UniProtKB/TrEMBL annotation:
Protein name: L-ribulose-5-phosphate 4-epimerase
InterPro entries: Aldolase_class_II_sugar_metab (IPR050197), Aldolase_II/adducin_N (IPR001303), Aldolase_II/adducin_N_sf (IPR036409)
Keywords carried by this UniProt record: Arabinose catabolism, Carbohydrate metabolism, Isomerase, Metal-binding, Zinc
Lineage: Bacteria, Bacillati, Bacillota, Clostridia, Eubacteriales
Function as written in the Swiss-Prot or TrEMBL entry: Involved in the degradation of L-arabinose. Catalyzes the interconversion of L-ribulose 5-phosphate (LRu5P) and D-xylulose 5-phosphate (D-Xu5P) via a retroaldol/aldol mechanism (carbon-carbon bond cleavage analogous to a class II aldolase reaction).
GO molecular function, one term: aldehyde-lyase activity
Length: 232
């Protein structure tokens, strides 16, 4: 687990590097599927004080296996995402400001151009608010359930849509490992910023033509991908 702790620690440090977090408003985790254990940032620990040894090891039922700190308060959401999306290897949560602005507005981010289509197939969904009962019962766990249920309901493949907005909350992204999940968090923030500016400049703007979205998405993904995974 020491190597995974180091990887997840390094991935966490990329959040302030890419300006995706204010204070400690975010966290990254990464999983060892063979062991069925994942490593996550401790709750409330500042990024410039973080060390690899501070990382918390959890199992897929949400039990702490190792670590002197409490795991991130978002851990139950990470647990559900790992259980419901078995192909993912890393998860990121942030309140990055452009993506969170779309989340707070309760809006999906339409695909307005090839920057978006290169990484994400179709709109980035925004899931509804949780009900009072869902919030009181288990807010973070139910956030994960809501995300996974919404992907099923919309027929979205988490491998093709590695980002989601949670209404009035923030953004979750994922990837094959913790670093790719951070990469996708940077992409989500950039496309959120461009989409907001795009609507400001032209309130009647339409999503990019489907053929263009397909060309760009499938050029980098799938059987005929021009780029290998990880080259994106
Ligand atoms: O979403 C929130 C708070 O709204 C949390 O993600 C954020 O503050 C980070 O919490 P942790 O320090 O990871 O427990």
């Amino acid at each position: 687990m020491e190597q995974l702790k180091k990887e997840v620690y390094e991935a966490n440090l990329l959040l302030p590097k890419y300006d995706l977090v204010t204070f400690t408003w975010g966290n990254v985790s990464g999983i060892d599927r063979e062991k069925g254990l994942f490593v996550i940032k401790p709750s409330g620990v500042e990024y410039d004080k973080l060390t690899p040894e501070d990382m918390v090891v959890m199992d897929l039922e949400g039990n702490k296996v190792e670590g002197r700190y409490n795991p991130s308060s978002d851990t139950p959401t990470h647990v559900v995402l790992y259980n419901r999306f078995p192909q993912i290897g890393g998860v990121v949560h942030t309140h990055s400001s452009w993506a969170t602005s779309w989340a707070q507005a309760g809006r999906d981010i339409p695909c307005y151009g090839t920057t978006h289509a290169d990484y994400i197939y179709g709109e980035i969904p925004c899931v509804r608010n949780l009900t009072r009962e869902e919030i009181e019962e288990a807010y973070e766990r139910n956030t994960g359930v809501l995300i996974a249920d919404e992907f099923e309901a919309r027929g979205k493949d988490p491998a093709a849509v590695p980002a989601v907005l949670c209404k009035n909350h923030g953004v979750f992204t994922w990837g094959k490992d913790a670093h790719e999940a951070v990469h996708n968090a940077v992409v989500a923030e950039e496309v959120a910023k461009m989409a907001a500016r795009c609507e400001m400049l032209n309130p009647q703007v339409e999503p990019a033509p489907q053929e263009l979205q397909d060309k760009h998405y499938y050029r980098k993904h799938g059987a005929n991908a021009y780029y290998g995974q990880g080259d994106q």
